[in-house]
Amino acid sequence: MSVAPLLENVTLISADSHVLEPVDLWAQRLPAALRSKAPQFPAHKLGAGFQHHSGGHDPDARLAEMAIDGVAAEVLYPTLALSLFGLDDAALQQACFRAYNDWLIDYCSVAPGRLVGVAAISVYDIEAAVRELERCRRAGLRGALVWQSPHETLPFSGRNYDQLWAAAQNHDMPISLHILTGHGNGKALLGMQGSGNNIEQYRRAVNLKLMEAAGALFDLIFYGALDRHPKLKVVTVENEIGWMPFLFQQWEYYCAKFRAANPAPLRQLPSDYLEGQVYGTFFNDRVGARHLDTWGKACAMWSNDFPHPNSTWPNSRATIADHLGHLSPTVLEQVVCGNAARIYGMDVSKISLPPNGATARSGM
Question: From CA 122, how far away is CA 240, in angstroms rounded?
């Protein structure tokens, strides 16, 4: 199938892209009392590691790179700061995330209609987390990223997050759970990067990653967070989506099987939460994409993972045509644009690419 007929008039929004923070961000921006603890990262080298595109750190360069890919807007997550969700020092993590959020606010200010920032939120102190979420919302960020694998003392099954969930609901800030964040598999997998051959890296990259994502959703659904906060939106990010219909199908099967002896304390069926509260991003998932005509059209969100090496850039439109070409135009538009625009409050009419594909500072 040719790309043009399928996507000629479709606006693309990537629901999971990344910035690449300066390696000295925290050494420069942390309070003086904490700078001796600033996280250390190797220097960036263009063309190596995650540093394949200048747009990771330069928003003006990013707009030009987005135009090459035919993408009108991107929802932005950190790169280096993902590993900081595994910090045990609560005060340091809180300060690191505030410094990152300040940098991200400046980055997104270049084109706030196209560069949609997601704040990193430390949740050791929930009252402080709420203040930071509200501060970032006032400054123009559109979502909040918390760890996917919580500290063992702060499981999502508990009530300690309720104040944060309420604030996220009230301020229309979707809560994101991104791969490789927190105190579980992600912490270990990040430590394996560049460590040579290790067969366990495959287990962690697939099996354990999905266990964490599934576990987080289970806790948020079955322990009532989504029932207590019916307008709260939760996004599982970069975990792909092919596993989700099977997971929700099995939850429903066992909810029915155990209804008499051990009824699940839910106000609706598990899959009903996919109609407005639970979302998933994907970028390289043929299995998940193949089933989108029967499930997930209201919750799945396409992404390009730019500027990471896995990115579909600069061939995102061709990839979409290949993976999603079987969908009706209406469902396709939902998955590559409409769902993300809805939950992040984006005005698609103001970010649609002009005929020449340029994304100069527009969509303000």
Answer: 24
The rounded percent of the chain whose pLDDT value lies above 90 is: 81
Give the Cα separation of 13 and 351 in Å (integer). Answer: 9
Does this model's pTM top 0.85? yes
pLDDT tens digits for range 205-229: 889 889 999 999 999 999 999 999 9
Shortest CA distance to 22 belongs to which of 40, 35, 49, 36?
Answer: 40
- Find, among 65, 345, 325, the residue nearest to 336 by Cα: 325
**pLDDT confidence of residue 361:** 52
Q: Which residues have a Cβ under 8 Å from the Cβ of 49 and sit 6 or more positions away?
A: 309
48 pLDDT above the threshold of 80: no
Q: CB under 8 Å to 355, separation ≥6 — which residues?
A: none
Q: What is the reported pLDDT for 1?
A: 45
Average pLDDT for residues 101-116, to the nearest whole number? Answer: 97
pLDDT in tens, 109-132: 999 999 999 999 999 999 999 999
Q: Domains of the chain by range and CATH? A: 11-349 (3.20.20.140)
